[in-house]
Write a structure and sequence with these properties.
This protein is of the alpha/beta class. The chain has helices at 23-34, 48-55, 84-97, 134-147, 151-169, 173-182, 186-194, 197-211, and strands spanning 15-19, 38-42, 60-62, 76-79, 100-103, 116-120, 123-127. It folds into three domains: 1-114, 3-Layer(aba) Sandwich (Rossmann fold); 115-144, Double Stranded RNA Binding Domain; 151-211, no CATH class. The chain contains eight helices and seven strands; from the N terminus they run βαβαββαβββααααα. α5 runs parallel beside α8 (197-211). The radius of gyration is 22 Å and the shape is elongated.
């Protein structure tokens, strides 16, 4: 049994190559762009959405079949064609160059899997089945989406700068731990569970007043 090591990659500005120009490739391109990657698509034909992205200069495009060596310089590669021979060639090129490769629906030729993801601002929850059941991963993602609403993103916005100030300014370890703990009191967690944004902001404001630190949006 293969064991995986879960990581969260920082792709900002990193070249990511997507081989393929269909609907699956489009979804992969969207997720890479959302992560700030620089995306190059290699395919003789592009789906309409990818054509629009090219016209908007959001992606680089090589409008031709894949050639050996096209992955040179890439940080990671996603092979999303319906041609198993091409996918295997891409995987072999990546293996020779030690480049991360995800070959869609071909887990044997992957060095990483793309998980199902729930995003709530800076909160990112990923679910992976090791490539065995993407459908199960989607089902679990849907359950998590209903549980972790947009208010969780708002919560992270509110406490992000406060936590930075506490870590930077408070020297006593016990006091620092107590202040950080106050940002996740049961009342705040209850407000998160209920999706009550107004109550959440009020509770965080009370913590701000108690610590003397300013909130990210000015004095509470």
């Amino acid at each position: 049994m293969q064991r995986i090591y879960p990581v969260a990659l920082i792709l900002d500005g990193q070249l990511s190559v997507v081989v393929g120009g269909g609907s699956v490739a489009y979804r992969k391109v969207c997720s890479l762009l959302d992560a700030g990657a620089r995306v190059r698509v290699i395919s003789p034909v592009l789906a309409g959405e990818l054509q629009e992205m090219q016209e908007q200069n959001r992606i680089e495009v090589d409008l031709r079949p894949y050639r050996s060596g096209d992955v040179d310089g890439a940080f990671l590669v996603i092979s999303a064609t319906n041609d198993s021979t091409v996918n295997q060639e891409v995987a072999a090129d990546c293996a020779a160059r030690q480049i991360l490769i995800n070959s869609v629906d071909d887990p044997e030729h992957c060095t990483f899997y793309v998980p199902a993801v729930v995003r709530r601002g800076d909160l990112v929850i990923s679910i992976s089945t090791g490539g065995k059941s993407p459908m199960l991963a989607r089902k679990i993602r849907q359950q998590l989406e209903s549980h972790y609403g947009p208010v969780y993103g708002r919560y992270l916005e509110l406490i992000g700068e406060m936590r930075h100030n506490i870590v930077r300014s408070v020297q006593d370890a016990t006091e620092k731990e107590a202040l950080l703990e106050a940002l996740s009191t049961p009342q705040i967690l209850d407000a998160l569970e209920q999706g009550d944004s107004a109550m959440l902001e009020e509770l965080v404001a009370r913590v701000v007043r108690g610590t003397g630190f300013e909130s990210p949006h000015g004095p509470a």
